[in-house]
Amino acid sequence: MKRTKNTKRNMTFVGIVFLMVLLAAQPVNAMHIMEGFLPIGWAVFWWVLSLPFIAFGLYQVGKIFKDKPEQKVLLAIATAFTFALSAFKLPSVTGSSSHMTGIGLGAIVLGPFATVVVGTIALLFQALLLAHGGLTTLGANVFSMAIVGSFVAYGIYKGLSKLNVPKALTVFLAACIADLVTYITTSIQLGLAFPDPVGGMTASVAKFLSIFAITQIPLAIIEGILTVLVVNAIYQYKEKGIISNETLADN
């Protein structure tokens, strides 16, 4: 009974935080590729690549709801965390902006495929409610953040854990590097769609990377620190019995 009450309280808290973000956030022109910016061929291409991951991710989430319903709390926390962090921006150059992704947390506590769904939900809400990203470019944004970011974070976390690297450093590096790789992927997507007339795709990618590197590197470091704090809090709840051991079983 106590665990049930605590779980409900946690979910209520997540819901309040999520609502505060919705009410406070303003439309932004951020690193998520904006609606209509990609040529239709590239928009379709990234949708085709992303859909199998989304489909299998939904299957994994369905298994979580059926076999491990206690993980619903983590699913809600990871979704709110991803939405909140990726909704706040830091002005960059050329009138654009940079932001954190928040994707590392879900990959660490839920695994990469379920986190693809987490990232897709966050990106969809941002596109519909905040004019952040878009529907035609959702496939590209999902691929860079929810797919590449999730699998990079998960791979780093699992790999460093096997090497007995301290937990806090492992979580920090997983979240930080996943953030940076997301922006590298987005720069490659933009470079492919808009090659430089002189230097081609390579020059275009380098240009996009240089635009966002100034603000994105410190943001990635901040995201790594925040993810460590949240993961530590989750494990403290586990030790107190509020979150069961099964909730944080290895994925």
Write a concise keyword list for the protein shown above.
251 residues; 74% helix; mainly alpha; globular; Arp2/3 complex 21 kDa subunit ARPC3
Please specify the SSE layout and strand pairing:
Elements: H1 2-24, H2 40-67, H3 72-87, E1 89-91, E2 97-99, H4 103-110, H5 112-129, H6 138-162, H7 167-193, H8 200-239
Antiparallel strand pairs: 1-2
Helix pairs in contact: 1-3, 2-5, 2-6, 3-4, 3-5, 4-5, 4-6, 4-7, 5-6, 6-7, 7-8
Can you put this structure into words, describing what you see?
This protein has 251 residues and is mainly alpha-helical. The chain has one domain (2-18, 30-248): Arp2/3 complex 21 kDa subunit ARPC3, CATH 1.10.1760. The protein has helices spanning 2-24, 40-67, 72-87, 103-110, 112-129, 138-162, 167-193, 200-239; strands spanning 89-91, 97-99. Strands 1-2 form a two-stranded antiparallel sheet. Strand 1 (89-91) and strand 2 form a beta hairpin. Helix 3 (72-87) runs antiparallel to helix 4. The longest helix is centred in the C-terminal third of the chain and has 40 residues, at 200-239.
Explain briefly what this protein structure is.
The protein has 251 residues and is mainly alpha-helical.
